[in-house]
Every structure is written in structure tokens, then in C-alpha cells.
Amino acid sequence: MGEWSSYALSDFLLFSPQTYFRQFALINEAIFPVPVLLIALSLVIAAFADGSGWRGRAVVVGLAILCASSAWLFHNGSYADINWAADWFALGFAVQALALLLWSVMGKFPPRKVALLLRLLAAFVVLVYPLQAIVFGRPWQAAEIVGISPDATMVFTLLVLASAVGGWRYLLLTIPILWCVIGLLTLWTMGAAEFWSLAALVVAAAIALSFARAGRQSRNDPAPAS
Amino acid sequence: MAHDKTASASIGRRGLLRAAAGLAALAATGSSAVRAAGAPMTRAIPSSGEAVPLVGLGTWITFNVGKDARARDACAGVMQAFFEAGGRMIDSSPMYASSQETIGYGLAKLGRREAVFSAEKVWVSGVERGLAQMEESRRKWDVPRFDLMQVHNLVSWEEHLPRLQAMKAEGKLRYVGITTSEGRRHGEFERVMAGHKLDFVQVTYNILDREVERRILPLAQERGIAVIANRPFREGALLREMAGKKLPPWAAEIGATSWAQFVLKFIVSHPAITCAIPATTQVAHVRENMAAASGPLPDAALRRRMIDYVAAL
């Protein structure tokens, strides 16, 4: 269609905030206790984010599982009912999962340090971010869990990938960054207070990423001649 | 004030159709709303004389609830209140995601497929894809045919209009229309109205968005085209802005007891408007909206006063 330019962003908001956040409650209730398993998997990934060798590969496989489960459970299983663009989002998440799997086979996972801030932020996304449902007056069943909530899943992926090495990581960061933009635009257009919590998290992740990068560079720099 | 004319309680659709000649005369001016006792006021579709209640039901956002059984039942409750208040026209589009399934669920649950005036849209490029989309929409509503099929936001209207007219001639739908919203492509919209046989147009019209008063509404009257007013409350933003502000005392003269009724009465009192389609998720609101289609409507002087009052808020 050549008429896309005549539409405003709000024209693509097809649902109310109540309907959007209700999807999380419906999914969590329908697949319980899978959300608990996803939280456990996410915590293991956060704990072993600095893993080298097979541990590093296992962490990336775990991330792929989380991206795939969000694609399947949220985008394909629920969001597609209220947003006709969700099939494309599911495809994007599936591509991310495949790229992660490919990297788990072909990537290099040398020993490396993961900044404490990154670990704390990753744990925050897994354990505290879901509690915002209660803070914003929604039932706890509507908690946004990593592996279901696309926002939580992609921010978590960003944080874990922050310690990755090699050119691959830039490719792997593309979809999570794109999703953060889409997620923020969706929440903003809905006028949801959750916009601010996601925005704060994305900013914190960006700061943590830049610190991690700076730390890596300083370790790689040769010591000054005395 | 233009008080509604109370007709015999026995006036129904068939009766009105039999009196088509008389109603066609009313429709030519488009200015007269008719009300059977206990029923909402109606206005005639110019091309047929069929009466349509002045207030219908939109489904944008509100009926897009996915597979949520609780929310679907709530929407069915809204539909039940709508039909009980004498409502008929429900409008949707393939663009509105699961809204069509929600309507289908409600119609089946309430057993009101015969009561509804089904207004749908085609929103895709290409005749074949359009036909497939319309059939998919019909399947979701689970109705034998649509009463009104509109080309959504003029998407590929050159392709769709001839096909829709052919479908109307074959009895596969009853009326053909085009839509736009929020002032999009009004120039092209006018050209289509002027150059093609249309039963309906759908445009954005409310007490703040009145651009269509200048050319499109007069053209609709001149061409004998029914007009559906969408976004009467600017997706609720208008009512949120007015919340907490007092209705003027003279709102009682037209029986408006809320801002929603104030705004709806303004819209449907324009002689070119056939039906306004507010959307809601609440039974109380649909009753309040339907009540706007009863009691007196503002005349030209009062409409001017309403505009000035809202502008000054």
C-alpha cells in the first residue's frame, strides 16, 4: 500500500493497554509452571554469563531458547491475535534465536570478565522487572517474564551479550536494539507508565554496555612505559 | 431546537421501506430524524430510504481483545446493551485485528445476527486479495452477507469499487461506501464521491474536527450519500479533556446529561450525518451513547453555541 505515509503512529496501536498487558496474564496462567522454569533458566544464564568454552556455548543456547520461547509464546501465541504485525515480530525473534544457535557453534568463548553492574542488571530484569505489574496496579499473574515478555527478553539478551567478544556480537545486538525501539514506541503510544521503566532499563543497559566496552579496552591497552 | 418526530410504535424496517418514497424525500434533505416510541431516532439512508439509528457502535481498539474469554464476554455485554437500546449498525475492519472475531462471538452468543446492520471494510490492494479478505471477514462475523462494505481509507479504491458495485448488483451486499479518517486525503475522497455511485461515506466528524462541514458533508447531501461519523470522541481523548468540566446549564434543553451525549447530539444533529459510531467497552457508556439518539437535537443556533462553548473550555 502506498498510503502508509498518511498514517500516524497511533493508527497502528490496535489495542488498549489493558488488552496488551492482559496477554501476559493469559500466557502465564495457560502455561504455568513454564514461567517458573524460564525464570530459573534466565538466572542460570545470568550466573554463567562469563562462562568460557562449553559453558559459554550453553549460555548462548539458553539465550536462543528464551528468544524462541518469546517468539512462540508471546508473539505467535498471543500478540498475533491483537496485532497483525506480530507474525513479523515472531519471525525477527526466531531469526535472533537461530543466529544465537549458529554463534553457539561457530563463536569463540574465551575466558573473560563480566562487569558486576551487568550481572546485577540482568538479575534485576529477571527478578524485579516482572514485579512492575503489581506496582502499576495489574495482577501479579501479568508479570513480564524473560522468555515471554519481548521487552524483558531482549533487554536481558542485550545485557548478556554485552560481555561477548568478536564481530558477531554486533550482528547479534541488532534485533534486540531494534526491539527495544519498537517496545518503547508501543508503550509510549499506549501512554503506559511502563514506558519509563523500560526506558530506564535501556539507558542503564547502554551505560553498562559502554562501561563493559571501556573496561575491555583498558585491559587490552599496553601498559604505559615507565 | 429540532424536536424529534415521534412516529407510531409499530413503525419498523418493513414499514419504513414501504414508505420509501416519503422517506426518500426526507433523505433528500437528510435533515429529519425519525423516532419510533421507545426506539432511538433514525435517519434514512438516501439511496434506499432504509432507516438507521443515529447512533451505532464502533469497534476500533475496544473489541480487539484477542482470545481473552472474559473480555469477549464483556464485549458481548456491550453488544447486548446496544441491541436492547435499539442499536443496529456495528462497524469494523480487517485492520482492527481480532475485533471481527469478537463481533462474531457476540452475535452468536446473543443470537442477534438478524438485528445487526453489519458495516465492514476492505483494506488490501488487489481485487482477488480484496475478495479473499471480505470472505474472511464474513466468516469471522459469521453473517450470510454484509449490509455495507466500505473501501477502508481509499486503499485501492479504483480496483475495489467496481467489484463492490457488482457484488451489490448480485445481492452479495446491500450498500457500498468509502472511508477516511482524521482528515486524510479529503481531496481524493471528494473526487470519488463526485464521480462514483456510493451509498455511504465514512469520515471523522466531531465538535472539534469539523473540516468535513465545508465540502464533504454538503457534497454528500447533494449526491444523496449517507454519512457515518467516526472517531466521535477522538478515541476518548475528547471526553478525557472534558472530564471534570461542567456541562453548560442549557445542555438540559437538548436532554444531554453527559459530555458524551453533548458531543453525540452535536454530531447527529448535522443534517448530513446518518449515524455516529462511538466505541466503548462499558455497558453504561453504550447506554449513555444510545440515549443521545433520543430527545431533542440542537438546531443551528444551539450548535453554534455548543461549538463556542467547547472552544472556550
Class per helix and strand makeup of chain A: mainly alpha
Largest interface: A-B, 18 and 23 residues
Which strand-content bin applies to the residues of chain A?
Answer: under 5%
Q: Output the number of helix runs of chain B.
A: 12
> Mind summarizing the main beta sheet of chain B?
8 strands, parallel
Overall geometric form of chain A: globular
Please state the CA-atom Rg of chain A, rounded to the nearest Å. 18 Å
- The total beta strand count of chain B reads 12
Distance between the termini of chain A: 67 Å
The largest sheet of chain A, given as strand count, sense and whether it forms a barrel, is: none
Please state the average pLDDT score of chain A: 89
Bin the helical content of chain A. Answer: 55-70%
Provide the descriptors you would attach to this structure in a database record.
heterodimer; A: 226 residues; mainly alpha; B: alpha/beta; eight-stranded parallel sheet; four-stranded mixed sheet; 12 helices; 12 strands; globular; disordered N terminus
